[in-house]
Amino acid sequence: MFFRFSHSLSMKIKERVIKSILALSAFISIVTTLAIIGVLGRESFTFFLTVPVTDFLFGTHWEPLLEPKSFGILPLMAGTLLIVIGSGMIALPVGLLTAIYLSEYASNRTREIIKPILEILAGIPTVVYGYFALTFITPVIRIVLPQTQIFNGLSASIVVGIMILPMVASLCDDAIRSVPVTLRQGGYALGATPYELTKSVTVPAAFSGIIASFVLAISRAFGETMAVTLAAGATPNLTLNPLESIQTMTAYIVQVSLGDTPAGGIEYQTIFAVGGLLFIITLIMNIAANWIMNHYREVYE
User: Fold this and answer.
1) Model pTM?
2) Residue 71 bridge partners (DSSP)
3) Phi, psi of 63 (to 5 degrees)
4) What is the CA 299 to chain-centroid distance, rounded?
5) Measured between alpha carbons, how far is 249 from 272 in angstroms, rounded to an integer?
6) C or N: which end of the chain has fewer Cβ atoms within 10 Å?
C-alpha cells in the first residue's frame, strides 16, 4: 500500500515538473517575441521621428548611406518581391508535383532514393547556394540572355527556389500522406482512377497542409539573406526586370550590419525600420494563411 502511494506521489511530482518545464518554454517563447517586437518598435519609432512614414513607404529612391540621403523603401520591396515571386513560381508547383508523385505514385524504392536527395538539398548552407548561382547559374543565363548582369534577380530567384523546394515537397508529402485511407478507399470504390482520386480527393483534403507548406516556404524566401546577397547584388533598383542587379530587404540589413555604420545614427536605425516592415509583411502572410487553413479544414473534417 505504501509503495503504491509513494509511486503515485512520484508520478504526480514528475507530471508537475514536466508541466512547469513546458509552461516555462511557452513563456520564454512569448517573452522572446515581445522582446523582438519591443526592440524593433523602439528603434523604428526613433527612425520615424526623423523620416516621415509616407516617405519611407512610398519613396522610390533608397540611398540612406550616401548624400543626399533617400529613405524610400520601394526599391528594396521590389527586389524582395521579385525574389519571392520568382522562387515561388519554381518551388511551389515543382514541390507539390514532387510530393504528389512520392505519396501517390512512386514505389518504395524510388521514394527511398528521392527523399534523401531532397534532404541533402535542404542541408546545403545558403552561402554555397550563393556561390553556385554566381559560378554556374548566372553564366548559363548569360549564354542564353547576354544582356543579363553578373548580379541579377533571375539567378537569385532560381537558387532560392531550389533552396525552398525540399521544404515544399516534404511538407506537402506529409500532408497528402496524412489523408485518411478511408477517403482513398471510398474514391476507389466509386470507380475513380488514381489521377481522379488525386485531383478530387487527396489534394483537396490535404489543402490546409499544402497551404501551410507554401506559407513556410514563402516566408523562408522573404527571409533568405546570404544567397540573394551574393547572387542578386546590392543595387537598390526599383525594377521588375529580373536580369538587372537588385537588393532585397535582408541583403540591405546585412550590408549595414557589417560594422561600418556607427550605432545610433539614422543610417543604423534604418535596419530596424526595414526589419519591422519585413516582420509586419510576414505576420500578415501568416494571418491570411491561418484563415485559409481554418476555412478549408472546416470543409474536409
Assistant:
1) 0.83
2) 62
3) -140, 65
4) 27
5) 11
6) N
